[in-house]
Design goal:
The complex is a heterodimer of chains A (about 600) and B (about 550). With about 600 residues, chain A is of the alpha/beta class. Chain A contains 20 helices and 21 strands. Chain A is elongated. Chain B is elongated and about 85 Å long. Classes of the chains: A alpha/beta (about 600), B alpha/beta (about 550). At the A-B interface, helix 6 and helix 18 of A face helix 1, helix 6 and helix 18 of B. Chain A: One of its GO terms (cellular component) is lysosome.
Chain lengths: ~600, ~550
């Protein structure tokens, strides 16, 4: 046991520029048992802009006496270490400076603390929980009990303190559209200082910090000297799950929230009900799920389930925006709420089937008002998604009462006016409840009057740029999800398509571009349930996550992003997220489930 | 917004989904009806009545029939009895199950009657295996009759699929008579453990799922360019240097043994593929001089091409290597690959050029490939194994042994190829239409289902030479994280095409059964993905 196996390695600010590495290990001074290694590497690239990096590891020599200097060249080993050495951050921070200097982290002597000047201190629910969570993420072996003991023979553990300071408290609040998620992170010898305005910013910083830590082949943990200044490009970075077409068990949702936090998503758009089923258990209208869910007990979300989702999300700085889509997409509502849907007619008599919500009767609006009141009570976010998409007019057309109403209102034969009438009513209702409405683009496409603060969401794939122009010209805030319908699968690396999207690349003024508040990845549920949700989402959703968070100019090249994303997907696996592979290859720690 | 792409397929399946999913909870009778028709793959002859018998875990048993040639010493069947008992009744060790009210069983036992003198308990299944069985369900005993244990396994699977739970949690089975046999003898799944390493438990779970679908061949594409996870006793450096990781990403001899035995227990053959001379990059790491050095100009470029076909050492290596393979894998066949050989490296190498001239091959490198393959086939033939090859080997005119199985994988001119191969008198299997690694949005299982393997023009004798097919899940984009839901239930479509009668082609009927069958797989712990909107009574819990 005389040779010390610890090998230092090389870091690059831009590792991808390096096409080939020539590594020469100049001199390794091997110290006896309780001492450490001095290592001096010179790295040269064969790329045109030959870049030289010199790394001198700081000595952490203990009491031992120096033995003979040993010349050795460990080309193979070093190169393989370099390969795993991408340790980038996903999504890419706005500013990131990494140095080759690195320090060792030891779980025994690692701690998170609150800075003296921090507005949040011990007792801050969000950060206390985050410290606990990130400790296990940073030291995955520690809790699994397979700690590599050897490192304690060779190195005296050094203390490392992550000091977190936030300007404002708000530990018990919810993230919202104005939450400041910016943070600064400075990692130096023995410590890291994380500063942010809010606890939500601190969460983003902790996530970045956790991604900076890496393990060498002997299980030791390291972090390089790093400076990060970071903030999101868009305030709204959402992910849609559809729990109506297939029921998603609670743990599938919670796991998705975990993975969202790893990619810095901050909105969970919960498309909770739709035609096929109504799994939301309403306190006001329990029959909706009793009769409209796939099963009234096993396939529902109880109030406490919903609460758990909201709290799990809050802890990760994620907003929960529920969608109660109407007047279309409501077949399942009708079972538990007789009289809500329009009866369709065939040859002058009711056919027994039902269409969209009946917009001609008062009871509909009373019902919607009660439901929205409940939604406001249950979901703390200031946004509610009201849907409003894909309303089929055939049933309305067939119904004599609806036709009479059209006449009375002077709508002629234009059923979009009827739809408009309905949407306007419920948007006003929502505004009266102090909530901001989000609606699908159909509502804008077909209707003249929309309350100005309504957020419009684009979902139709064709010509979404033109739609962005029109909507922002009309002064509306816009969310883009059309290019990110990742339930549509295809062979190969389709994450590159998501990555190539440029949300502000449309004709319009600077003011217009600012109205694009973000975007959403949509995972509709026709072909997705708990069996395949996670690998279908991850890492494909990560592409949009980076587009929505990072600087576009620094992240347009998918080839440069590839190795970082590959690394990140292995990190997701390490964290227990069943993320599928991008291409051939392997992870050191493969997924060990089924 | 989600529906918008679906309008084309929507009407039929929406209607189906409505029946299956939404009304499910309301109509107990309906549920029963659906379960009855949820056999997958559909048996050849099937007669069922509305008379239902209760099955109680407390009193129902699966036993050897008195007349059976198999008895308690038949480990394979004993194991299968337990497995199917648990499939039917759930794991009785779980407390909530044991609390279940005990009721009398109408059906007291399933007698398994193996009729031939040798039940083949300790054998391995083969291409010639008789998998037929007869199943008769009536009070007080059901009888499953099969010539050997392999047919009995298929019948046990069918029996387990006939049992359904009513709304009081009681297991029922209807009075039924089934006489069943496979349409094709070779019904395979290809998994690729080179492009991504597949942990052992993923392979075992898929063998489990294969048995649920009556697949009988695991085509193990075990090594390829990217990695060499097979740990060879003779050449340990192949995996030490060619695997993604020499300890965590390898199949040890005992892993391989376990796969083979696990498969045997389910009547599944394991056919390993060691693909040469192309697709061998990873071999070169642990076996110096095996691969052809490529040249750039007049000097070696440092990269390597296919196996070097001009060195005797290559053939010496292959002789020793396949000697090992022939003892490790008991099946009568080895898949030798032979596909997609890139000639550029050979072309660049001056020694190869010289050899080509010597042999009079001119510049036709397919002749060199054939030269290699010919010698390889002789080497393998000497181990007394039969071989399978990809279609190029046949296309290039290599002289093949009579019992060679040619695998047709190229999508274009598939029918022409089948015609040519069978005209030349070779047996063939079809995988071209069943490359399940190619994914697309929607219900692509229907495309796989609609394939008719014998639709090519040819004589009856030619058609008989098509002995089956394989669903292939190549590994470029697949590993343990997504393999199982990507394979199932899409491969089930292939399973029915290869087992059931040619006339079983009704996609609507298949949809109804397959929805149930996928829920059954989910219930048994296989994360089979959904076909369309709807739900299973027991959703997947293994996340």
């Amino acid at each position: 046991m005389q040779t010390i196996q610890e090998i230092d390695h090389v870091t690059q600010a831009e590792p991808m520029r390096l096409t080939a590495l020539l590594v020469t290990c100049h001199m390794t001074r091997v110290l006896t048992v309780s001492a450490l290694v001095y290592c001096h590497f010179i790295v040269q690239t064969s790329s045109p802009t030959a870049l030289k990096l010199t790394e001198v590891c700081s000595s952490m020599a203990h009491t031992g006496t120096h033995s003979q200097p040993v010349r050795s060249c460990l080309l193979l080993v070093v190169v393989s270490v370099c390969v795993q050495q991408v340790h980038g951050v996903w999504p890419l921070p706005q500013q990131l400076h990494q140095s080759a200097d690195r320090g060792c982290l030891s779980p025994q002597r690692f701690s998170f603390t609150y800075g003296r000047d921090s507005a949040a201190q011990t007792g801050c629910s969000v950060l206390d929980a985050a410290f606990k969570r990130y400790f296990s993420i940073i030291f995955p072996d520690f809790t699994k009990g397979s700690e590599n003991r050897l490192q304690y023979v060779w190195s005296e553990p050094q203390p490392f303190v992550v000091s977190v300071s936030v300007k404002t408290g708000g530990c018990d609040g919810y993230p919202d559209e104005d939450s400041d998620e910016s943070y600064n992170l400075s990692v130096s010898e023995g410590q890291a200082v994380l500063r942010s305005v809010t606890v939500w910013g601190a969460l983003r910083g902790l996530e970045s910090f956790s991604q900076l830590v890496y393990q060498d082949d002997y299980g030791s943990y390291f972090i390089n000297k790093t400076e990060i200044v970071d903030f999101p490009r868009f305030a709204f970075r959402g992910l849609l799950l559809d729990t109506s077409r297939h029921y998603l068990p609670l743990h599938a949702i919670l796991k998705t929230l975990d993975a969202m936090a790893y990619s810095k998503f901050n909105v969970f758009h919960w498309h909770i009900v739709d035609d096929p089923s109504f799994p939301y258990q309403s306190r006001t209208f329990p029959d909706l799920s009793n009769k409209g869910a796939f099963h009234p007990f096993t396939h529902i979300y109880t109030q406490s389930d919903v609460m758990r989702v909201i709290e799990h999300a809050r802890m990760r700085g994620i907003r929960v925006v529920p969608e109660f889509d109407s007047p279309g997409h409501t077949q399942s509502w009708g079972k538990g709420q007789p009289g809500l849907l329009t009866p369709c007619y065939k040859g002058g008599v009711p056919s027994g089937s039902f269409g969209p919500v009946d917009p001609t009767i008062d009871t509909t609006y009373k019902f919607m008002e009660s439901l929205l009141k409940e939604v406001k009570f249950v979901f703390p976010d200031s946004y509610v998604h009201l849907g409003g998409d894909e309303v089929s007019f055939a049933c309305w057309q067939s119904n004599p009462n609806v036709r009479k109403f059209m006449e009375k209102m002077g709508f002629g034969k234009d059923f979009t006016k009827l739809e408009s009438f309905y949407m306007e009513s419920i948007m006003n209702m929502t505004a009266a409840l102090n909530r901001t409405s989000i609606v699908w683009q159909d509502v804008f496409d077909y209707h003249e009057r929309i309350p100005q603060d309504t957020v419009l969401e684009i979902w139709k794939g064709e010509k979404y740029q033109a739609e962005l122009s029109r909507m922002t010209q009309a002064g509306h805030r816009v969310l883009l999800s059309a290019p990110w319908y990742i339930n549509h699968i295809s062979y190969g690396q389709d994450w590159r398509n998501s990555y190539a999207v440029q949300p502000q690349n449309f004709s319009g003024t600077e003011e217009q571009k600012k109205l694009v508040i973000g975007g959403e990845v949509a995972m509709w549920g026709e072909y997705v349930d708990a069996t395949n949700l996670t690998p279908r989402l991850w890492p494909r959703a990560c592409a949009a996550a980076e587009r929505l968070w990072s600087n576009e100019e620094k992240t347009l090249n998918a080839d440069l992003a590839f190795p970082r994303l590959e690394e990140f997907r292995c990190e997701l696996l390490r964290r227990g997220i069943q993320a599928e592979p991008l291409f051939v290859g392997h992870c050191k720690h493969e997924y060990d489930g089924l | 917004m989600a529906m918008y792409c679906l309008l084309k397929l929507a009407p039929l399946f929406l209607a189906v989904a409505v029946c299956n999913g939404w009304l499910f909870g309301d109509f107990v009778g309906k549920q029963k009806e659906q379960d009855e028709i949820s056999l997958w793959p559909l048996p050849q002859k099937f007669q069922s009545s509305a008379v239902a018998f209760k099955l109680s875990p407390a009193s129902f048993q699966i036993v050897h029939a008195k007349q059976s040639s198999a008895g308690p010493s038949c480990g394979l069947l004993e194991n299968a009895f337990r497995r199917y008992f648990e499939y039917i009744f759930g794991d009785l060790k779980k407390p909530e199950k044991s609390r279940k009210k005990v009721y009398d069983s109408d059906l007291v036992e399933l007698q398994v009657w193996v009729t031939s003198a040798d039940p083949k308990c300790d054998d391995f299944p083969s291409l010639q295996t008789d998998e037929s069985y007869e199943l008769s369900i009536d009070e007080p005993s059901a009888v499953l009759k099969a010539a050997n244990v392999w047919g009995a396994l298929r019948g046990l699977e069918t029996f387990s699929q006939l049992v359904y739970e009513d709304y009081y949690g009681v297991n029922n089975i209807n009075k039924t008579d089934i006489s069943d046999f496979p349409r094709f003898a070779h019904r395979g799944i290809l998994l690729d453990s080179s492009r991504h390493f597949l942990p052992l438990k993923v392979i075992l779970a898929n063998l489990e799922a294969m048995a649920m679908n009556k697949f009988n061949v695991f085509h193990w594409h075990i090594v390829d360019d990217q990695s060499f996870p097979y740990m060879s006793r003779t050449f340990p450096e192949l995996s030490q240097k060619g695997a993604y990781h020499p300890f965590t990403h390898v199949y040890t001899p005992s892993d391989v043994k376990m796969v083979i035995e696990f498969a045997r227990m389910r009547g599944i053959r394991v056919i390993p593929e060691f693909d040469t001379p192309g697709h061998t990059e990873s071999w070169g790491n642990g076996q110096l001089d095996l691969l052809t050095p490529c040249y750039s100009g007049s000097s070696p470029s440092g990269t390597f091409g296919p196996v070097n076909p001009i060195l005797n050492s290559s053939y010496d290596f292959m002789t020793q290597f396949f000697k090992e393979i022939s003892t490790v894998f008991p099946d009568a066949y080895i898949h030798l690959g032979g596909d997609e050989v890139d000639f550029r490296c050979w072309e660049s190498n001056p020694d190869i050029q010289k050899f080509m001239a010597q042999q009079g091959f001119g510049t036709d490198y397919s002749k060199l490939e054939s030269f290699y393959i010919q010698r390889l086939l002789d080497i393998v033939a000497a181990t007394k194994k039969g071989y399978m090859v990809w279609q190029e080997v046949f296309d290039n005119g290599v002289k093949l042994k009579d019992d060679t199985v040619v695998e047709v994988w190229m999508g274009n001119k598939m029918e022409e190829e089948l015609q040519n191969v069978t005209r030349a008198g070779f047996t063939t299997i079809l995988s071209a239409p069943w490359y399940l690694d190619y994914i697309s949005y929607g219900q692509d299982w229907q495309h796989y289902y609609k394939v008719e393997p014998l639709s090519f023009p040819g004589t009856d004798a030619q058609k008989k030479l098509v002995i089956g097919g394989e669903a292939c899940l190549w590994g470029e984009y697949v590993d343990a994280t997504n393999l199982t839901p990507r394979l199932w239930p899409r491969a089930s479509a292939v399973a029915e095409r290869l087992w059931s009668d040619k006339s079983v082609t009704d996609v609507g009927n298949a949809y109804n059964r397959l929805v149930q069958h996928r829920c059954r797989m989910v219930k048994r712990g296989i994360p089979a993905e959904p076909l369309f909107v709807g739900h299973c009574r027991q959703e997947y819990k293994g996340l």
